[in-house]
Design brief:
- The complex is a heterodimer.
- Chain A contains 15 helices and 15 strands.
- By secondary structure, chain A is an alpha/beta fold.
- Chain A has two domains: 260 residues, P-loop containing nucleotide triphosphate hydrolases (Rossmann fold), CATH 3.40.50; 72 residues, 2-Layer Sandwich (Gyrase A, domain 2), CATH 3.30.1360.
- In chain A, the strands form three sheets. An eight-stranded mixed sheet of chain A has the order 5-6-7-3-8-9-15-14, with helices on both faces.
- In chain A, α8 links the parallel β6 and β7.
- The radius of gyration of chain A is 25 Å and the shape is globular.
- Among the domains of chain B are: 41 residues, no CATH class; 82 residues, no CATH class.
- Helices cover 31% and strands 18% of the residues of chain B.
- Chain B contains 15 helices and twelve strands.
- The chains are: A alpha/beta, B alpha/beta.
Chain lengths: 459, 433
């Protein structure tokens, strides 16, 4: 049955990238009004680059709204990226060219470079593949969804659900197809007795097993697992994690495992990618990320994770505030609004000042509007002179130390405050240890943290 | 931590809740007994289908009946302080004293009140009107998914205010004085019709209505400030969809704690939240509990969270209590094979890769009452007796009891010792080591 092993041979050597995201961006338009005018962009994934290596498990972790699911869907080409792209099995020489071309903005490329990029995109970019190449990619990159029940057609029998990929790719039909489906069900710990049942007749764990069987049907290289155990009990979760572990060993699978559960991620992953607000905050080998977190956000996630082992404490540390609006992400380091070790250099901007003022109890409903000239410079208008005077005083005395230091200039004229903050570029992801990247400026730029703030744990 | 002198606020004895359908009877809760003491957090853990939520809903009187049937057992509520029905203003139940005292012995302590001197309220047979007076006032509940439990068309102000309109009408009307007009009274009970509401906009009713409104706003703002919502006056005017998940859960806790309840039932309050937010919500629940000395029943399937916040913990399996004891003790030296298996199944930080000790199979549904240990078909130590006799909770260590034959003697039960399971006495929880 040679047809069953249809893996492409180019990337079978361990350690080669199978999937590569290069400058990947996915923005969702925000529409408003009767004409559905586009008023903004939700930057769900905003410029991430990483490789998924052959045979590894890459864990993607972050809070809700950080773009991890969007990223997973971009990897499986269920979503088309806004910019950049996901590339499948790029040979090393083409990869170098692609990196070079993506390093520069699209309008700075010459005409020949643009045609070169377009040609490469057509050969390797997953959403632009056509014909046999697309076929090859699709069958080699499968997905398991978060809600197993919602991802199984309630009107189809298990034999059809698991057998569908086999029919579509003309792998098997009739009796042979049934045999293959039984084999797959047995691989996930179920059996022939389940063939003629509907999804609702199964428990949550069994439903997840069925969707794993479906993903395995075409013997793919990569499986993207989007929170496959989040709706399961610990005992069933352990069953599924064991199953995934065994399948990976038997079939040399590559997993991209998306989850918000640090315990699960730590258990299953070789490498971890921590996302925050559409960006990679840190990525690196699992143990290193857990024991020597280079980013305060990673540290906060680790600290907030309740552990079963000898914790006498009644509480764990949480993070203040909520994730900022991804349609207007903060400047500089996106985590600076909640960071416990923030510095004046982290990218304080006008929005931060407006947020702080509107949330101050003394100034309730007194901030009328803002007009930004640049993200770092602009005017805040209050209801009257008196309120503006009070706001000015608050800004000069009560704001967080780091924010005050970042404020270059503030002036009041009538009810309007003109503010100017220190300018700051977007932070860069830098490799600080072998295969371990972070974008925290405390590490990448050797900045000193704010003396009043608590010390970062490992930076 | 619970002490020997702990006063049980809620006593559940041999509770049985069945779901009756045309085909069969499912025994969702089958003989559960526990005490919820004053000033403690009792955790209930177990897999899906173990009956933990059904137990909680029975306490609140929120079961859909039919199909649910309370087939047996008692749930006794013994509130302290003010009379649970009139909140101290004097009514028939408390003989106008306003205090919560036992009706039989007048607070001296007797068999009826178990020596506590408190009134004994049977929550299973309470008339709906009286249950309504208790619910939200003395027993409150936080639900799992805040975005599904808050009303999307009401502002936060209106949702939290409902609690005060239901239970604190006297306080609201005290603001107006004795001469409250009828429409105002009705408005303070949230009973005003649309015509009356129009009437409240014109003099002379307007000024009184405004006073009531202002009082309600103050109460709502205070309740929101209590759960550490910054800027409560601003949050009051927003709708649930404008708030983040953590904020919504805070609003729900504010609603539940608004009237200082004796008992708070938290049914998986952090399951829908991120870990960073979960940490802060847990902190809040523990802080509120300690400040108000309330009794909290914390239901969760997350063992690490339960270990962290709870004083005592009960492990439920298939409608029965498998193990009860102080949280640290149960997690450090679990006795029941099910507790051990659950703990071993948790992947935790600091533990290497590889296989986890999963419990094969899933929680079965029980439809008949044949005596057996319900865990026997998934238990690694199951023996002959496990399929023929029902285990009883039995004290194995200080304050810790287990329902497993591994801790009983063959002689007492009158069976040959070969029928007894061989459960290793020292815990073999590899994941906890």
């Amino acid at each position: 049955m040679s047809a069953r092993v249809k893996r492409s041979e180019s990337a079978v050597v361990a350690g080669l990238p199978v999937l590569s995201a290069i400058g990947l961006k996915k923005h969702y338009p925000v529409k408003e009004g009767a004409l559905q005018r586009v008023v903004g962009q939700v930057r769900a994934v905003d410029g991430v680059s990483f490789d998924v290596l052959k045979g590894e498990t890459l864990g993607i972790v972050g809070e809700s709204g950080c773009g991890k699911t969007t990223l997973g869907r971009c990897l499986t080409a269920l979503l088309d990226p806004t910019e950049g792209g996901v590339y499948f099995e790029v040979p090393a020489e083409d990869r170098a060219t692609l990196d070079e071309l993506h390093a520069r903005p699209a309008d700075k490329l010459s005409a020949t470079e643009r045609t070169e990029l377009a040609a490469l995109d057509q050969r390797y970019r997953v959403d632009q593949l056509i014909g046999p190449a697309r076929y090859n990619y699709r069958r080699n990159c499968q997905m398991v969804f978060q809600d197993a029940f919602a991802s199984l057609n309630p009107r189809h029998l298990v034999r059809d659900i698991v057998g569908r990929p086999l029919s579509i790719y003309k792998e098997a039909r009739g009796r042979e197809r049934i045999e293959r489906v039984v084999e797959l069900l047995e691989a996930v710990g179920m059996g022939a007795q389940h063939l003629n049942r509907y999804p609702h007749e199964f428990s949550g764990g069994q439903q997840q097993r069925i969707s794993i069987a479906r993903a395995l049907a075409l013997d793919p290289q990569v499986i993207v697992l989007d929170e496959p155990t989040s709706s399961l009990d610990v005992s069933v979760q352990a069953q599924i994690l064991n199953l995934l572990h065994d399948l990976q060993k038997d079939r040399n699978l590559t997993y991209v495992f998306v989850s918000h559960d640090l315990g699960v991620i730590q258990h299953i992953s070789d490498r971890i990618l921590v996302m925050y607000l559409g960006e990679i905050a840190e990525d690196g080998p699992t143990t290193e990320v857990f024991t020597e977190a280079k980013h305060p956000y990673t540290q906060a996630l680790v600290d907030a994770n309740p552990v079963l082992v000898d914790s006498q404490a009644r509480t764990v540390k949480g993070l203040a505030g909520s994730v900022p609006d991804p349609a207007r992400p903060p400047q500089g380091c996106r985590f600076h609004t909640r960071c416990p070790v923030v510095t004046p250099h982290c990218g304080w901007d006008l929005d931060d000042a407006v947020d702080w003022l509107t949330n101050h109890p003394d100034l309730r409903d007194q901030v009328k509007g803002e007009s930004a000239r640049t993200p770092f410079e602009g005017d805040i208008t209050l209801v009257d002179d008196e309120a503006a005077e009070r706001a000015l005083e608050l800004i000069q005395t009560k704001t967080p130390e780091a924010m005050r230091e970042a404020l270059v200039d503030v002036q009041r004229s009538g009810p309007t405050l003109a503010l100017r903050f220190r300018e700051r570029d977007r932070v860069q992801l830098v490799e600080v240890l072998p295969r371990h990247r972070t974008n925290c400026i405390l590490v990448t730029e050797q900045r000193e943290p704010d003396p009043d703030a608590p010390q970062p744990v490992n930076a | 931590m619970s002490t020997a002198a702990a006063v049980p606020v809620i006593q559940v004895r041999d509770l049985r809740v069945h779901f009756e359908t045309k085909k069969r009877i499912v025994r969702a809760v089958d003989g559960v007994s526990f005490d919820l003491n004053e000033n403690e957090i009792l955790g209930i853990v177990g897999e899906t289908g173990s009956g933990k939520s059904i137990t909680a809903r029975t306490l609140m009187g929120l079961l859909p009946m039919p199909p649910a049937v309370v087939a047996g057992g008692t749930v006794t509520f013994r509130p302290g302080g003010r009379c649970p029905y009139c909140q101290g203003s004097g009514c028939k139940t408390c003989k106008s004293t306003g205090n919560a005292v036992c009706a039989v012995c007048d607070g001296k302590g007797c068999a009826e009140c178990d020596g506590t001197g408190r009134p004994t309220i049977d929550l299973l047979h309470l008339p709906p009107a009286k249950m309504r007076q208790l619910r939200g006032m003395r027993i409150a509940m936080i639900f799992q998914d805040p975005s599904k439990s808050l009303n999307p068309v009401l502002s936060v102000r209106d949702q939290v205010a409902e609690v005060f309109f239901q239970h604190r009408t006297a306080d609201l009307l005290a603001e107006v004085g004795d001469s409250a007009w009828l429409p105002v009274r009705r408005a303070a009970h949230q009973e005003a019709r649309s015509a009356e509401r129009l009437l409240l906009r014109v003099p002379p009713f307007r000024s009184q209505a405004r006073k009531v409104r202002k009082k309600v706003d103050d109460l709502v703002a205070r309740a929101l400030a209590d759960v550490q919502i910054a800027n409560p006056r601003k949050v009051m005017d927003s709708y649930p969809h404008q708030l983040s998940g953590g904020m919504k859960q805070r609003v729900m806790i504010a609603q539940a704690m608004a009237c200082d309840p004796d008992v708070l039932i938290a049914d998986e309050p952090t399951t829908a939240l991120d870990t960073t937010v979960q940490a802060r919500i847990l902190e809040l629940i523990v802080e509120m509990q300690q400040r108000r000395r309330a009794a909290v029943l914390y239901i969760s399937h997350d063992l690490s969270v339960v270990r962290m916040v709870c004083d005592r913990v009960g492990v439920m399996y298939a409608g029965q209590m498998a193990e009860v004891g102080p949280a640290q003790q149960v997690f450090d030296s679990p006795h029941h094979p099910y507790t051990r298996a659950l703990l071993a199944a948790v992947p935790s930080v600091g533990q290497g890769r590889g296989r986890l000790a999963a419990i094969e199979g899933s929680v079965p549904e029980f439809t008949d009452d044949s005596p057996l240990c319900r865990f026997h078909n998934r238990c690694p130590h199951a023996a002959a007796i496990c399929t023929s006799v029902e285990p009883r909770l039995r004290t194995v260590a200080e304050a810790q009891s287990v329902a497993c034959f591994g801790y009983e003697s063959a002689v007492e039960l009158g069976v040959p010792s070969t029928d007894m399971p061989d459960v290793p006495k020292s815990s073999t929880t590899t994941s906890v080591a």
